[in-house]
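Before the break, one more example. Copy the sequence into your notebook; we will annotate it together after we see the structure.
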Amino acid sequence: MPTFSVSQIEVFGRGVLKAEGVVVDKANCVYGGGRNGIMYKVTPDGKVAELVHLPSGSIPNGVTMDRNGDIIYCDLGKEAVMRVTQDGKVSMVADRAGDLPLSLPNFATYDAEGNLYVSNSSTSNIHKIGDELTNPQPKGALCLIRKNGRSEVIATDLYLANGTAIDPREEAVYVLESTRFDCLRIPIKKDGTHGKPEVFSKGFPAIPDGMAFDADGDLYITLPGKGKRPEDPPKDKILLPTNQILKVDKNGNWTMLIDDPKSEKLDHPTNCAFGGPGLQDLYFANLEGEHFSRVHTNFRGHPLYHQR
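Here is what the structure looks like once it is written out:
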């Protein structure tokens, strides 16, 4: 049985159209970019404002924030990591890492020092990603853009690299492989180098997309839809909604936190983030919805770089 019932989920910020990412600032304002190219800001009382219309061709994906309050977002259309300030100025952070073009940047996460980890889902771009959902290929990577501006690729041969997160002790960076239905753990060494990726949790019932840690080191993963596995019939649709949220413990064992099969409060939840008083509210972006969602929990989220 799921931990939370659908009735415990709150629709928040109605009017946010098809947001893929979600991030919450220290004042508990909630941000996300819609597929219509608008970056939204929702105040704690649920009022929706359009922060900025992004440049033509922008397709905002995962979002995070720096300590200046700037929103850092992965832009599938511009094939770059971008920045938008609170007064609506848009600029590029990076369009490559080392020698790798960021052809499909998906999600970005800051560590405690201000270094930015970025998943690049594939060497293909957004227009060809459907092929990879039906025929998985190890074309993804995890990149690092250091605070000094230098960048590098720290892991390759990933299967549709998606959401990223760093554990509270900063001992490893985690990345979801959407077409392998698993989560990888990549050790962070004290000298700033990284170990080899290892499977941390696997066998998810649907495609994993985004994730967030709580303060105790448990992980919460969004499952927007049922992906196509190799054993599925050829005519099966690529992405049927599942609207599930998993809780993964420190040993990699997962249980169902939320299940909303009728899309009553969740509609393809793609990313999640903690916010609210005591960081006890877990927010969700709904890729096919017109709102954020949130649930009040009895646990505390791990504060991200901008929330510390």
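The chain has a mean pLDDT of 95. The first helix runs from residue 129 to 134. Try to locate both features in your own notes.
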